[in-house]
Design a protein that fits this description.
Strand content: 35-45%
Number of strands: 19
CATH architecture of the largest domain: Sandwich
Number of domains: 2
Largest sheet: 5 strands, antiparallel
Strand order of the largest sheet: 9-12-17-14-15
Number of helices: 3
Radius of gyration: 30 Å
CATH class of the largest domain: Mainly Beta
Order of helices and strands: HEEEEEEEEEEHEEEEEHEEEE
Structural class: mainly beta
Length: 282
Amino acid sequence: MRGRRRWAVVLTVVVVSLLCARGAQAAWGVVTRNSGSSFAAGSIAAPTGLTVAAVASPPSNKLTWTLPPAANRGNGQTVTSSVDGSAYSTIATLSGAAVAATDSPTLGDTLYCYKVTTTWSLWTAPTAASCPAPAAPLAAINAGGGASATYAADTGFSGGSTYSTGSAIDTSLVPNPAPQSVYQTERYGNFTYTVSGLTPNAPYHVRLQEAEIYWSGPGKRSFDVKINGVQVLSGYDIFAATGGQYRAIALTFATTADAGGAIAIQFITLKDNAKVDGIEIL
């Protein structure tokens, strides 16, 4: 009987010890979880006055902001960017009291939004988003149509014919769409657009604005596109890509101007006719 009592006492002591150890571990976790921070939750302040200024050469956006007082300031800032409505991603991680950053390179006719978040341990405080108006493209052509906003009247083409519609165009697939009139006109057939006056051997982007305004189903039109001899589209079907007639899509491709400072965009018919509604050089 005494042996049983002795073992009962020992078991009780072990259980109590384990419980105390778990309690101490839990308390340690709570106490040390934020041991690197001198702030209580909610006391850290976000930067203010976030401004974005466009720089022409090289194409970039310069960001500046004001930090909160030292008592409410984190130990670093994270700069994030959203491009044409995409999810925010980090473009710079800065330590100390940094108040400026540069996003480079940037593209014309593209919507950039920025946030600056100050951090300390687990606490973060972001600015409101700053979304400056998109910079104008370096060149823009309304294929088969007249001048509209930043788009010049149809120019620089060789070959092809024109067509237009009065139907409204659904631009929900294009984050920063061209004017309706650009999608309502087109050049079709086998043709080439040449944009000159660019910097020789310099990098650029070509953006093609497309909408199927003739056929009412997939498989009716397919075509290839080459930019300065490099194939960028093969067997492209606008209706299949967008899921419907009168629906716009924008396609952007990196390229390099040739030694004469020109970019040639060739449209090659596979079925029915190749076509384009608008062309931008960014």
